[in-house]
Amino acid sequence: MGKPMPQNLSRSAPGTDLETTNSTAMVLTAYAMTMTIRGSEPKAFEAAVRAWRERNPQAAHDDAARAVATIICNKL
Description:
Elements lengths: L16 H22 L2 H15 L5 H15 L1
């Protein structure tokens, strides 16, 4: 068979750095796109929360909102 895949290139499980990076990117993209299209911060925030919950469906809305707020605040 072929060579084993390096650890940093293997498939990520939920909670790994790659998964976190992907979730963060989805949140920021959803937020930015909604701000561009609608120009409404509350609607952009809710779009970002929905994007985060797509990756974390088990999370409660309040937990998702806190995670999104942290992601957005860390980006600013």
